[in-house]
Automatic annotation (TrEMBL), chain A:
SMART domains: RAB (SM00175), RAS (SM00173), RHO (SM00174). Keywords: Nucleotide-binding. This is Ras-related protein RABF1. One of its GO terms (molecular function) is nucleotide binding. NCBIfam families: small_GTP. The keyword Cell inner membrane does not apply. It holds the Pfam family Ras. InterPro entries: P-loop_NTPase, Small_GTP-bd, Small_GTPase. It comes from the Eukaryota. The keyword Nucleotide-binding applies.
From TrEMBL, chain B:
InterPro entries: DUF5601, VPS9, Vps9-like, VPS9_dom_sf. Residues 575-591 have a biased composition (Low complexity). The lineage of its organism: Eukaryota, Viridiplantae, Streptophyta, Embryophyta, Marchantiophyta. Residues 290-327, 401-437, 492-528, 540-591 are annotated as: Disordered. One of its GO terms (molecular function) is guanyl-nucleotide exchange factor activity. Residues 401-412 have a biased composition (Polar residues). It comes from Riccia sorocarpa. Pfam families: DUF5601 (PF18151), VPS9 (PF02204). Residues 108-252 form the VPS9 domain. Residues 492-521 have a biased composition (Basic and acidic residues). Gene3D superfamilies: 1.10.246.120, VPS9 domain. This is VPS9 domain-containing protein.
Length: 202, 591
């Protein structure tokens, strides 16, 4: 899997940093449900972990799984966005369950592995799915992960870029291993979120 | 809070008691009236899930706003307000449970089908069929997760039911994290989590899964079914959906073999179900049971008609019964049948003994009716029951091992041997079970202490015996007498010995949490009694919280060790329970 570089120490999360109680969400403080889709093994959860882990205190002893994680980021316009990141099982046999997860999501990140054309095919399948059944106005990102493995690249950036443009998504290549572009991915999504209205269904 | 705390709001910190306290205040009279009116109106309309859900959601929202504006909550912190809102939801839904839970016959039908399917599936499904990698397989520890799920019908409020689900997910998650650390894999995501959850759900075969999920979806305050709770809830919904649609193409196994096994399972079930329900009451049922234990085993999870949804006893009975099915069918069914055959073989002799009156002498409560029972009997009844269970289980174990050693082909180590339908011994549900019952008993005792005060007798006494082994009593004990003040006093004492740790305080968990989780009881002052009587069964029975991964982690370590030495980790817990029980009964004697 894609998190090969992570050392045990860096895998550790911290509990209880941010309290939810009493927090309010308004146009300045958004709460966003983000769903991750993509073939199993493309490193969906690694991307999230990399994103979340950056802000973690590595000395903490508590570890977390990566199926659900949340992370708040502050933007330059002084808004904050709390991402609640829902991972989905990428195996074929669970494909029909995905709508349960992306229902009500404000953003979807569709991940493929740049070394696997199959996973790119699967990503396109998810994009079509989301266009048909996702929340209207859902923000979609196409993410080519494992960019550090450029020597084994099988999916050309240009192809993915072109596909993303035709489908009104933004495209980025990331490496969960080196953390390249991971924060940028989420910041880019945060910037595109609509302001002034709740981003999650009540 | 971000990441890993299932119940991040402070609602859990303050107890249900706080809500009751406030509602007792004279100035809350208007609120109390409005709540009662709502309950009255809700209960008198015919069931309409969509509309009912909406009206409860609206009412919760309106009343919570009323809290905010009410002088009683002047200066209250957000936490306190949240706590009151949780209290309201719990109170309301406990009252409305009968009407709101499984309201339509269709729901009951789905439940029944699902239960049946899982009963068959759990006989042969292996982790490999869901491509769960070897290094994250841990069937023994998964039992813990299963147990959390199986407790779901012990509770009436949506939050408490939800906590069962979250606890289950948390156990799985923690086990996966451990496994991934051990093997230096990447941290577990949904790719790893969902298959294990599905496996655990099938093995647990939780009672009325479909109805429970719908109930939570409809009646858990929407504003609180968000974030991590919503995520894991969704996982369970998707597990249910997967199981409902599961066919020969869904698993990594030969489709023909799948069909064959499903067919065989269905036939076995039909044979088991073919007999009409045994006559109720007196020793006839006892005789029926004695004569055909396997029938009982195969059919208990049949849901009762939805109109009976209000009877928590039925539910608990079923919960317990289903649990038995889940656990027992996991056991090598052949061995089990042999045990039952043995039992059937001596049935005549037992009936002889019964006729001679010897049974009555040895087991004084065998034919007791509710009217005969006094509060003082509760303790001895409970003791007798526990002793019986332990004796029964050890006997059964002994018989099983004898049978196993006679047929060496069944019992041998199957950790990797996925082919045999016979369940692998590492599951050893039988060794798990007795202690489980004991823990359940603890809960039941609490039920009595509060419920009896409230409703007087019979319900509480019935609750005494959630385990099928003594289910005869449930039929027998049909009408009770109100308990006197002495009983109430006694109950208070009993509770005092348990300590009043607020159980729903999910943040304060430690590895002890698991053992104390069943023991929380509301502390009542004499003045409270009337109030509680009115509030009936709204005691704070929040599910035990395994909330912090740390606690679970510790436990898991125990389990892993236990796995090797074949000692169940729950044993110390159980011992603790029984010793506590011991001291309790001593307390009673001195009192």
């Amino acid at each position: 899997m894609g998190c090969a570089a992570s050392s045990p120490a860096s895998r550790q999360g911290r509990l209880g940093v941010h309290q939810d109680a009493g927090e309010t969400y308004d146009s300045k403080n958004l709460r966003t449900k983000l769903v991750l889709l993509g073939d199993s093994g493309v490193g969906k959860s690694c991307i999230v972990l990399r994103f979340v882990r950056g802000q973690f205190d590595p000395s903490s002893k508590v570890t977390v799984g990566a199926s659900f994680l949340s992370q708040t980021i502050a933007l330059q316009d002084s808004t904050t966005v709390k991402f609640e990141i829902w991972d989905t099982a990428g195996q074929e046999r669970y494909a029909s369950l995905a709508p349960l997860y992306y229902r009500g999501a404000a953003a979807a990140v569709v991940v493929y592995d740049i070394t696997s054309p199959d996973s790119f095919q699967k990503a396109q399948f998810w994009v079509k799915e989301l266009q048909k059944h996702g929340s209207p106005g859902i923000i979609m990102a196409l993410v080519g992960n494992k960019a550090d493995l450029h020597e084994s690249r099988e999916v050309a950036s240009e192809d993915a870029q072109a596909y993303a443009e035709t489908n009104g998504m933004f495209f980025i290549e990331t490496s969960a291993k080196t953390a390249d572009n991971v924060n940028q991915l989420f910041e880019e999504i945060a910037k595109r979120l609509p302001r002034g209205q709740p981003t999650q269904k009540p | 809070m971000e990441n890993t705390d299932m119940f991040n709001n402070a609602t859990a910190q303050l107890t249900f008691h706080d809500f009751l306290d406030r509602m007792r205040h004279p100035s809350a009279a208007d609120l109390v009236r409005s709540i009662k009116n709502f309950i009255g109106a809700f209960s008198s309309n015919p069931p309409d899930p969509e509309k009912d859900s909406q009206s409860v959601q609206d009412f919760l929202a309106t009343t919570e706003n009323a809290f905010r504006a009410h002088p009683l909550w002047a200066g209250a912190t957000d936490d306190e307000l949240e706590s009151s809102s949780e209290g309201l939801e719990k109170y309301l839904m406990t009252k409305l449970h009968a009407k709101a839970f499984c309201p339509l016959p269709e729901d009951a039908e789905i439940d029944e089908k699902l239960t049946e399917k899982m009963t068959i599936l759990q006989e042969f499904i292996r982790p490999e069929h869901l491509d769960i990698p070897k290094n994250s397989q841990n069937e023994t520890s998964w039992l813990l997760a299963q147990k959390e799920l199986q407790r779901i019908n012990t509770y009436k409020s949506p939050r408490d039911k939800l906590v069962c689900i979250l606890n289950c997910c948390r156990v799985i998650n923690n086990l996966l994290v451990k496994a991934s650390m051990a093997s230096n894999d990447s941290p577990p995501g949904a790719d790893d989590f969902l298959p294990v959850l599905i496996y655990v759900v099938i093995k647990a075969n939780p009672p009325q899964l479909h109805s429970n999920l719908q109930y939570i979806q409809r009646y858990r305050h929407q504003g609180r079914l968000v974030s991590e709770a919503a995520y894991f809830f969704t996982n369970l919904v998707s597990a249910e959906s997967f199981i409902q649609n599961l066919d020969s193409t869904s698993l990594s196994m030969n489709p023909a073999e799948f069909e064959e096994r499903m067919h065989a399972g269905r036939q076995a079930l039909q044979q088991g179900n073919g007999v009409s329900t045994p006559p109720q009451g007196d020793s006839r049922e006892f005789r029926t049971l004695l004569a055909s234990p396997e029938k009982r085993m195969m059919s208990p999870s049949k849901p009762s008609p939805p109109t009976e949804g209000g009877n928590p006893l039925k539910k608990e009975d079923k919960a317990a019964a289903t649990k038995v099915t889940a656990a027992e069918t996991e056991n090598a069914s052949r061995v089990l049948l042999s045990v039952d055959k043995l039992v059937a073989g001596v049935a005549d002799q037992v009936l002889e003994t019964e006729k001679s009156g010897q049974l009555r002498k040895d087991y004084p409560f065998l034919y007791a009716s509710a009217g005969d029972l006094r509060v003082a009997d509760v303790e001895s009844l409970l003791h007798e029951y526990k002793e019986l269970v332990l004796r029964y289980v050890s006997l059964r174990k002994a018989v099983e091992s004898t049978l196993n050693s006679e047929k060496p082909s069944t019992g041998v180590n199957k950790r990797d041997g996925e082919v045999e339908g016979a369940a692998p011994p590492e599951n050893s549900p039988a060794s798990e079970k007795p202690f489980d019952y004991i823990r359940k008993q603890e809960t039941a005792t609490e039920d009595i202490s509060l419920r009896e005060m409230a409703s007087g007798g019979s319900e509480g006494l019935q609750l005494l015996s959630p385990a099928p082994a003594s289910s005869e009593f449930r039929e027998v004990v049909s009408a009770g007498e109100p308990l006197d003040s002495e009983a109430i006093e006694l109950n208070r004492k009993l509770e005092a010995t348990e300590g009043n740790e607020p159980r729903s305080d999910v943040r304060r968990s430690s590895s002890e949490e698991l053992s104390t989780s069943d023991k929380h009881a509301l502390s009542l002052s004499p003045g409270d009694v009337e109030e509680v009587a009115d509030l009936l069964d709204t005691k704070d029975l929040g599910p035990g919280a395994l909330e912090q991964p740390k606690g679970v982690g510790t436990l898991e370590v125990e389990l892993v060790n236990a796995d090797d030495s074949k000692v169940m980790a729950t044993e110390p817990t159980a011992r603790q329970d029984s010793s506590q029980d011991q001291s309790r009964s001593e307390q009673q004697t001195t009192a």
